[in-house]
Amino acid sequence: MSFPPVSEQLALLERGVVDFHVRAELEQRIEESRRRGKPLRVKAGFDPTRPDLHLGHTVLLQKMRQFQDLGHTAIFLIGDFTAMLGDPTGQNEARPRLSREDVDRSAETYLEQAFKVLDPQKVELRRNREWIDRLSADAMAELMAKYTVSRMLERKDFAARFAEGRGIHMHEFLYPLLQGYDSVALECDVELGGTDQLFNLLVGRDLMGRYGKLPQIVMTTPILEGTDARLENGQIVGKKMSKSADNYIGIQEPADVMFRKAMQIGDDIVFRFFELLSRRDNAEIAALKRDRAGGRNPMEIKALFALELVERFHGAGAAAHAAREFERVYSKDAVPDDVPVVEVAPTGAAELAWALKQANLVASTSDARRLIEQGGVEVDGERATDARRVLEVGQEVLVRVGSKNRRFARIRVSSARPEGERKPEG
Questions:
Q1: Closest Cα partner for 64 from 82, 46, 38?
Q2: What is the dihedral of CA 168, 173, 175, 176, to 10 degrees?
Q3: CB-based contact 277:270 (threshold 8 Å)
Q4: Can you tell me the distance from the alpha carbon of 344 to that of 299, in angstroms, rounded to the nearest whole number?
Q5: pLDDT tens-digit map of 363-400
Q6: Domains in the chain, please, with CATH?
Q7: Alpha carbon of residue 152 to chain centroid
Q8: How far apart (Å, rounded) are the C-alpha atoms in residues 293 and 287?
Q9: pTM of the model
């Protein structure tokens, strides 16, 4: 089997990497793999505790895909045993324990989504229950004897909890040990993880040496910022991508929604997304940066990322349609064809701010009032100025909220319910 030159592989693989233990070792192993025609074994472990994924979760998957594209073996490890323990990383208290049934259900959904990024034909799929279930009491005691409590307390979260007198359960110490033992069992060359996993990954590197194995190389990928991140003094600032912050792009969202959200990324921030998630090579991304510096419209550059993103998860046809719809609605100030109709039934007067909240166009009535004051709400094509404007019973209005992130609804006011009458569920 032939592999690309070492320098070409390293240029791609180290793109976007934060922690690298140790780059020189990876270079040596890539050289050896080319000489012997043998792919590297590259592992990433996933505890299937989330029902759905967003782009932040796929940064690590994309790094795995890069190893796949270079000809190496990607080991997708489902932490079906460790997920039951609960990863203590970054936690102030022990995580709730999960059952095997909970983990198995989540794993099915997780894999279906992960294979939208990875090549399923080039994945070695493993579950750590395979070897952890077989560990005898003697073997578990031997594993625990290879690490010290003092070393565990070097972890910032454990150290903080210990200093503040908050409990640390014994099974939480087991988590990094068992994650590390995964690397011993699989004899990995490389383990990938997010920056928050660095301690656990280094435990695996350490344990491999203690078990007489060649220690793995550790590479971490960054935690991706949300679509609302901004550039300040040359630094990217903003909350990490998450549903709670409403700054995420879900990989199962409709194509039009995914395209629109991608176009909301900051003009300069989009290169962060290119570097971590795009399949374009370094030279292509560098050329786009030069184009941007030379005055190219940043919307054109963002559209390239949005197209690539939607095509990956929905196909070329859906990507092209999403691009046309975005151009039609956002560039020509048109109204989408599929605006939902929302019926609201007030107990009293149907004030505009209240109606916007009922239609799920805003998080709260106070948010609605603020948007109206800022000129961010239109009713039937006219800018709204009065948050207390009353919508009449039987009236239907077309509402648009926001400018960059436009949300539409046709709000229809039904007969008012008597005071105190319970609102129907749903």
A1: 46
A2: 130
A3: no
A4: 37
A5: 889 989 988 998 889 998 888 999 899 998 888 899 98
A6: 6-221 (3.40.50.620), 244-331 (1.10.240), 341-413 (3.10.290.10)
A7: 28
A8: 10
A9: 0.74
